[in-house]
From TrEMBL:
Stated name of the protein: DUF2232 domain-containing protein
TM regions (residue ranges): 20-52, 59-82, 88-107, 114-135, 172-190, 211-231, 237-261, 268-295
Biological classification of the source: Bacteria, Pseudomonadati, Pseudomonadota, Gammaproteobacteria, Chromatiales
Organism per entry: Candidatus Nitrosacidococcus tergens
Keywords: Membrane, Transmembrane, Transmembrane helix
Amino acid sequence: MSKISTDLREATFLLIQYNSLAIIIGGLAGALSFFFPLFAYLHGAIIGLVVLEKKTREALIVGIGAAAIALFMAFSSINILGPHKVDVVLPLLLTLWLPNFVSMLILRASRSLTVTFLIVGFFIVLFVVGTHSVADNMSLWWKKWLEQHISLVPGATVQGFVNEGALELMDGFVAMFFEASLICTVLLARKWQSFLNQATTFRTELSSLKLPRILTGLIVILGILITVEILPGPGSVWVDLLMVAIMLYFFQGVAALYAILASKKLSGWWLILLYIALFSAPTLIIKGVALIGIIRSLVDLNIFSSSDNIHA
């Protein structure tokens, strides 16, 4: 074991042992996320790790304490940040708080990433249905939102979104972002716990991820009905729900590829090539890997058999 790994494990033990330390570090990570959004994932992972390792009451105290520090520091600095940046980061933090907390409780109880993914999907479906219930015209709503926040993205214009037809899909894109953020945080916390306990259960859980076949069948039917225009297209709640499902099956596809590498006794680091390709052609890669995830649920293939010999 390297000295860095030993130091990280010892630091994590301190984090778990002292609730006050977890509250302070989690709160600071949450506050820093308003300046550097990636810190939101550290904030969520710390809360998730505490939920996995401690009693619910203690975890709740840590979660509330860390969230309170983050919100207090953020709103105290609102003159520096500007209200629009707070509007953007705050929903991400909220996603990585209560939904994250509940998802980690489910993971702790079930020890199943499959069940946890279903809970994550449930939360995101609530978001999609909720936004469509509140706004009569989603495209118009998102256009007004972009007009207020577009300055945060250098070079971007509202007209650019209109020309590309992205406004009709904005609700789905945002839902996919929240979903991916929540899933990544859950996986990070679970991997962190596995590292802390020097266990290999995370590898087995990830390789065994398989969403219910009946759900997959319903998603395929939904896609067909949208394609043949029996159900409304872009801008409708049906397309947004399909986009949510695609992101869920994208992560299952990644898990399936992980299982394939495991069965071939190859290193999980080979998946870095996939992540590099994801940045260069996100739409194509997400759809392609999601298709692998769908096949994983519908077909039992020996190629997906997992092994504990994978290194990651």
